[in-house]
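Internal tracking record. Fields below are filled automatically when a chain is submitted to the structure queue. Please do not edit lines marked as system-generated. If the sequence contains nonstandard residues, flag them in the REMARKS field before resubmitting.
Queue: standard
Priority: normal
Entity type: single polypeptide chain
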Amino acid sequence: MNPRTPPLGWNTWNTFGEKINEQLILESADKFIELGLKDAGYEYVVIDDCWSLRERDPKTNEIVPDPAKFPHGMKFIADYIHSKGLKFGMYSCAGTRTCGDYPGSYDHEFLDARTFARWGVDFLKYDYCDMPFGGQAEFYYRRMGQALRLSGRDILFSACNWGSEDVWRWIRTTGAGMYRSTGDIFDAFGSMKDIAVGQLPKFDTSAPGCFNDMDMLTVGMYRQGNVARGDAAQTFDEYRVQFALWCVYGAPLMLGCDIRKMDKDILALVTNKELLAIDQDPLALQPYAPETCWPNKEEPRVVARLLDGKDLALLFVNLGENDAWGRFHLERVGLPYQSGMKLRLRDVFSRKVSSSGRDTISYHIPPHTCQVYRATPVKA
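SYSTEM-GENERATED OUTPUT FOLLOWS
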């Protein structure tokens, strides 16, 4: 499957790591419906690493689900998830062993793809640990890409080699529908910031059919889980920055918190219709950074993206430690003074409507916060 808009879902890894089981997955699928996540557009329930026995079946050579964790097997889980109108995702690895030291798919790609198809898998996250030979990722990913295409089932291929080996140059040749363009994320503002800044030179490598994957969201984790880092939990404002960046960037949105314990503020954030509409805009055009920070030009101050129709998304963000003040010139988004236009600005959080000047927007952004607008050009 090659999606026309970024995939949305939930993945077990960020919070649970190897502590996964059948009950967790079924309860989480139920929560998708109860919380309205499915209605908001989230559809994939994905089991990450550590789901199998440590060795393959000696007779069939197939990967075997751990019966202590998944006593009814994966077909049972897939059927349950499908009964909710959702899609089922799983994990494997291009190497001989997964990152958690379970059987990988190296030299078993076609067998594993047929097994996943038989179970009813709709999404495969494919990692890159324990490779016998380095520097050949494109060949291994093409192998699994072909195996999935010939498996008899439409399975979205989520390639995950952490942005190494110039993956953006060749990933579309594998048939992947999304690919990791970054290293792993951790539940810390600095980790999120590094990933967000690192995407700026890669905006042109994401497009319909294969989207840049900036890793699973840590939004709402509050240092509870497998990828928690740092001495202090992130704030709600910091999570809002992360979610806004991922949406305006047009990235896949894979929730990583325990959705069974999601509070009302985080739920409102991740189901914000206007932010999700930006992420899921049918044109899926690339974003750009018309203004960066001074003196650190690597950090974005403003991110823009043209949307279907006449609108554009405008994100004002402060990843630094001091208040940011300034004026943004509309000419940077193609609207000089002589165009005779200004912008009608709808705040996607407060829903309040304001107006730019004919040539500038004045802003004040406190540290670790953001402002997001759906902007419509109108006559000045």
